[in-house]
Amino acid sequence: xxxxxxxxxxxxxxxxxxxxxxxxxxxxxxxxxxxxxxxxxxxxxxxxxxxxxxxxxxxxxxxxxxxxxxxxxxxxxxxxxxxxxxxxxxxx
Length: 92
Prior knowledge:
Protein name: Type II toxin-antitoxin system RelE/ParE family toxin
InterPro entries: RelE/ParE_toxin (IPR007712), RelE/ParE_toxin_dom_sf (IPR035093)
Largest sheet: 4 strands, mixed
CATH architecture: 2-Layer Sandwich
Distance between the termini: 27 Å
Shape: globular
CATH class: Alpha Beta
Keywords: Toxin-antitoxin system
Number of strands: 4
Order of helices and strands: EHHEEE
Number of helices: 2
Radius of gyration: 13 Å
CATH topology: YaeB-like fold
Number of domains: 1
CATH superfamily: RelE-like
Helix content: 25-40%
């Protein structure tokens, strides 16, 4: 198992996702739950998802049209989530 760490930017991204979907109903809340579950799942299998097609220094997972961008440290057994970007947002 790996430890999940959210960067400051990723934490802000997740707060923005909560705020945006918090305005919606049940379906919006499920989307937030799916994103959080996807973050938790990275701890068990971080290499399951591909190298980011926009920047090979990272891996990515797409959930509910959001791109979770992260990197893995085998030495420290840490998955660092660097961004959680919505479909309407430009990267980085």
